Amino acid sequence: MTNPPSVDGPSARPPADPRAAMVELRGVHKSYGSVEVLKGVDLTVARGEVVAVIGPSGGGKSTLLRCVNLLEPVSAGQVLLEGEDLTAAGTDLNTVRRRIGMVFQQFNLFPHLSAVDNLTLAPRKLLRMPKDEARKRALALLARVGLADKADAHPRQLSGGQQQRVAIARALMMDPHVMLFDEVTSALDPELVSEVLDVMRDLARSGMTMLCVTHEMGFARELGDRLVFVDGGVIAEHGRPADVLDRPQNDRTRQFLRKVLR
């Protein structure tokens, strides 16, 4: 597909620059054996843009997200980050992935480590960050996600929403250029969803480039610069969130939205 220019985002932050692509997917295919999950996806995410990805279960949303940092190696096509072809032979994926933060449905925290130690482990091991510097940065990020008083708590002592906020702070420890979110509120009780979405709102307003697979239509409408509907391994529709949600052009989009917007 040919992507439209970036549309105006929320008034709290400037619109993304459509000339500065952060992430590009060019003709991306992904197959598992004989099953083709992605069927030639083209997508560009501009620097500072928030793109919300919606669609039915099994349609390819999470696979698309995981192909961005090659957690799922693509079967064909190219994935570029800031113009660098991640699918090219010889690319050091470990170095590249430091520029891509990812948060999953499950929190994946180390249960035997405190919140602050969960945050400092990767930068100390991978970046050789000094212990004091890592702890100072970790405490600042925990404060940013509203958990300054939980630095020494272990995951079992935290609610699901608090654990997910720790996971977001952990991803931010590597100073990523783009953040990927894969249904990060789907495992939470409804009353805990808002505290995680508040952190994501803060990130969006700060100018972080974000690609978010979500079922939270209110979040997609409020903070998305663009909404992408994925079904059957293709991008079936995309545009301004209000346009797609209120005036969908694709029959499959209309069917999906009738179910989820009841």
Explain how this protein is built.
It contains nine helices and ten strands. With 262 residues, it is an alpha/beta fold. It has a six-stranded mixed β-sheet, with helices on both faces. The longest helix is centred in the C-terminal third of the chain and has 16 residues, at 190-205.
Structure characteristics:
26% strand, disordered N terminus, 6-stranded mixed beta sheet, 9 helices, alpha/beta, globular, 10 strands, 35% helix, 262 residues, 4-stranded antiparallel beta sheet, single chain
Question: Helix count?
Answer: 9
Query: So what's the overall shape?
Result: globular
How much is the radius of gyration in Å?
A: 18 Å
For the biggest β-sheet, the strand order reads 6-7-8-3-9-10
- Helical amount: 25-40%
Structural class: alpha/beta
Q: Could you give the distance between the termini?
A: 30 Å
